[in-house]
Each structure stands twice: as structure tokens, then as C-alpha cells.
Design goal:
mainly alpha; 3-stranded antiparallel β-sheet; two-stranded antiparallel sheet; 6 helices; 5 strands; elongated
Length: 155
């Protein structure tokens, strides 16, 4: 039926992914079981009962080629910073939508915020003020007035 690329090749991939996870511990090692009629795989939640600080800082199990882990940690850090804004639920949702579109390398202004979020010019300006006051964005020069970029939240 061509559903498998190679018999058993996925087991090694699963275990390798777990071992390279930033918060891997031996007690969450994947478990495989089979008999004549049953096949079971137990994949433990790597984030269960792990403090957020450890997930964001612990880089012991990070492989060099796995830059995505660092980027994910930075994105998580930004999500948490947006969640802690002194703003209403809609403002936080719009800030997350903007960050999801721009990440740390996108340059944006009020017009971009309006296009991405559907906000009015006044609401887009208020979102900029909230993000500036929280030190989550910084002005960018050389791209016209009123342009900003997201920056890593300060601890």
C-alpha cells in the first residue's frame, strides 16, 4: 500500500527528535510496544511539569543545527510579553497577529497594522503606543517616519 517509507525508520526519528528537544529528560523517553495484534506508542508531553523559565533558558540539549529551537523560545518570550501587556483582550490579540506577520525582522508602520489587523487609524496608533510603552518595538530609521521593528522583550 506504500504507506511506509521503510520499516522501523520512524522510531529512530522520533527518538532523535525527543533527545534534541530543549527540555528532554530520560523519564519522557518514547515507549514502543507491540505483540501479534497490537502496536502502541507512548509519546510523553515534554512540557508537562516544566517551569517556563527552564524551557526558555535551558539550552543543554540543543543541537547546533537546530536554530528553530532558539527562534521558538524567542517567539514564546514575545507571546508572554504581549500577554502581560496592560491592555484589553482585543489589543493583545491584535499585537499577536501583528507579531505573527512581522516576527523580529519585519518593518512596519501604522498602515501595515491597519492592513494586518483591520483596525482603524486611531486604534492602530493606540496599539503602537502600547507596544512602545512596553518596550516591545523600536523605531527604525531609513525606512520613512513611523516605522518600527519588534525587539526581544527585556527580562
Amino acid at each position: 500500500m506504500n504507506y511506509m517509507e521503510r520499516r522501523g525508520s520512524g522510531f529512530k526519528k522520533i527518538k532523535d527528535d525527543y533527545h534534541h528537544a530543549i527540555n528532554y529528560r530520560s523519564e519522557v523517553e518514547p515507549k514502543f510496544y507491540s505483540n501479534v495484534s497490537t502496536f502502541k506508542v507512548t509519546l510523553y508531553n515534554l512540557n508537562y511539569n516544566v517551569p517556563v523559565e527552564n524551557v526558555l533558558i535551558n539550552t543543554d540539549n540543543m543541537s547546533i543545527e537546530d536554530e528553530k529551537v532558539l527562534i521558538a523560545a524567542q517567539n514564546l518570550s514575545m507571546q508572554m510579553a504581549i500577554d502581560s501587556l496592560n491592555a484589553n483582550k482585543n489589543t493583545k490579540a491584535n499585537a499577536k497577529k501583528l507579531f505573527a506577520n512581522m516576527k523580529f525582522d519585519g518593518i512596519f508602520g501604522r498602515t501595515d497594522i491597519m492592513e494586518i489587523t483591520g483596525l482603524s487609524i486611531t486604534s492602530a496608533g493606540n496599539l503602537l503606543i502600547n507596544l512602545k510603552n512596553a518596550d516591545l518595538i523600536a523605531p527604525v530609521s531609513g525606512h520613512g517616519n513611523g516605522k518600527y521593528i519588534f525587539m526581544e522583550p527585556k527580562e
